[in-house]
Amino acid sequence: MSNVDLSAKIPNNVRLNEDKRLQRALEGWQPGFLQWWMDMGPEGFQADQIYLRTAIDVGREGWAHFAHVKMPDYRWGIFLADAPADRKVPCGDFTGQPAWQQVPGEYRNALRRIIVTQGDTEPASVEQQRLLGRTAPSLYDLRNLFQVNVEEGRHLWAMVYLLHSYFGRDGREEAEDLLKRRSGNPDSPRILGTFNEPVEDWLSFFMFTTFTDRDGKFQLLALAESGFDPLARTARFMLTEEAHHMFVGETGVGRIVQRTAEVMNDLKTDDVAKIRAAGAIDLPTIQRYLNRWFSSSVNLFGGEESSNAAQYFAQGLKGRYKEEEKYTDHVALEGVYDLPVVEGGRLSHKQIPLRNAMNEVLRDDYVGDCEFVVQRWNKVLEKAERPERLTLPSRRFHREVGIYSGKQFDREGNLITPEEWNENRDRWLPTPGDQAFVVSLMKPVLGMGQIASWIAPPRVGINANPFEWEYVRFDRASVGVALGAKPSLT
Ligand code: BYC
User: Fold this and answer.
1) How far, in Å, CA of 185 to CA of 178, rounded?
2) Burial 350-385 (b: 16+ CB within 10 A, else e)
């Protein structure tokens, strides 16, 4: 690739044109990425023109670039947010020293591991969502799905940039491996649990983008406080994209709740069978999906008491949410964290050194943010004059990682017996019947301005366009293949 081609193809602010080593590494990796995108990316829509936003610069203007493009032609770029030239390590044992522009030798393995774990989630989520295009409830939603997908692709590029630029040969090998693991594959699964769970329907997709992408937000906020400056700046730029993903999730669930409320009011009923017969998703089912995806995502913060987390903080590799704004003591050697633990068959409290509780400290901020989201969904019910409310389960509910895993808790976080769990499981988590019902609603609705029965249209469209607009221009030859059936396009 010539220099001109490079900048046009890979928008960047990392002086890619001048960096021969990075160019060579990316040239070697990019064909594999594209092959992965064709094999594992959104199935069936690769020839269509999607109204996508492409980041072409880090400034506000650089974000305003919208155009119809085919996904394989999307320009996945490499951007680092601006930072003061004299940025300091914000936390840990080296607080106040100049931030590192190169990887400190002693922390190389830990940093690589953090970057690989972050990087692995990005292609994983694209794999999880690859069949959803077939059942999009509207053109607007189809476009949003693909926007999320291409940006997760860019987040993979962001981590690969760090691996290629700062980790030499083993970084290049890790970058290759990021394209080899597969979500849900028992022989080579993705690294973290949630990213191996199938996302088979749009209710799950919106819950995933609400709760799992929100883990992304908080992990990236912690990495944005890293003493390793290129990681901090990369994470800061990724956060601008993450915000849109959470918008897709939160408004998606909000629109489903709104539609359900409308149907309940129209029919003057809260009878699940009648709501389902009207083609809407009943609130108890929405609540069970919420329970499932929240509890799965809560696992992603790791163990409550973690020597890894203590080490990452001490070494200045990961900070806390808003480290500089919220805290005055950035060393955190003194404090303790009051952790609810199970001892002698009952819940009690144990004080652990603050540094060892850093996963839990971040989880606190995450759970608080999720509470606000649920409150906003409840506003939709309130406005529709419905008495029902959604709630966030306790963080101890249905855990598979950490000290609460292998024990049973109810939705309020009380310790219960396995028998009590078995009696209530189907009230708390989606049943095969719920899943079959939700999947049965998933039929593509791709006419302009049309929308599926189970979700309300958005209040506004994308980039000041109306909801009724051509967010996707189908390649007529391939649309039947994409949907696995003959869709109605009008
Ligand atoms: N599943 O000390 P512990 C996103 C492992 S999402 C499976 O408790 P640590 C996105 C752990 O690796 C954000 N395994 O945990 C969202 C360790 O393994 P080893 C992704 C798990 O290390 C949507 C062991 O259990 N970014 O961006 O303090 C769409 C004990 O570990 C899980 C990051 O995660 C799990 N859930 O913390 C697209 C940031 N949890 O050492 C994208 C980078 C823990 O025994 N990652 N384990 O082999 C990290 O900072 C840390 O690795 C974690 C774990 C916070 C994930």
Assistant:
1) 14
2) eebebbbbbbbbbbbbbbeebeebbeebbebbeeee
**3-state DSSP assignment of residue 378:** helix
Q: Whole-prediction pTM value?
A: 0.96
pLDDT at 484 over 90: no
Confidence of residue 482 (pLDDT cuts 50, 70, 90): low
Q: How much distance in Å is there from the Cα of 358 to the middle of ligand 1?
A: 13
Q: In whole angstroms, give the CA distance from residue 189 to residue 120.
A: 10
* Residue 226 · residue 268 · CB < 8 Å: no
Structure tokens at 6: 């490079």
Which amino acids bring their CB within 6 angstroms of ligand 1?
A: 114, 117-118, 121-122, 125, 152, 192-193, 212-213, 215-216, 219, 299-303, 306, 308-309, 318, 359, 401
> If pLDDT is split at 50, 70 and 90, which confidence band does 489 have?
very low
**249-307 tens-digit pLDDT:** 999 999 999 999 999 999 999 999 999 999 999 999 999 999 999 999 999 999 999 99
What is the β-pairing status of strands 336-343 and 415-416?
A: unpaired
CA of 302 to the centre of ligand 1 (A): 5
Q: Is 135 left (phi over 0), alpha (psi -120 to 50) or beta?
A: alpha
Read off the pLDDT of residues 118-134 as tens digits, 9 standing for 90 and up.
999 999 999 999 999 99
Dist CA 351 CA 357 (whole Å): 10
Nearest to 438 by CA among 267, 287, 271: 287
- E-assigned strand segments in 310-449: 336-343, 346-353, 408-409, 415-416
What are the angstrom distances between the C-alpha of 233 and each of 81, 108, 225? 5, 18, 9
Residue nearest to ligand 1 atom 35, measured at CA: 192
**Distance between CA 189 and CA 194 in Å, rounded?**
11
Which of ligand 1's atoms lies nearest the C-alpha of 152?
38
DSSP strand pairing (472-473 vs 49-54): antiparallel
Contact 137, 455 (CB under 8 A): yes
C-alpha 269 – ligand 1 centre gap (Å): 43
pLDDT at 6 (0 to 100): 72
At residue 161, φ and ψ (nearest 5 deg) are -55, -45
Given pLDDT bands bounded at 50, 70 and 90, which one contains residue 56? confident
Q: E strand or H helix at 103, and its extent?
A: none
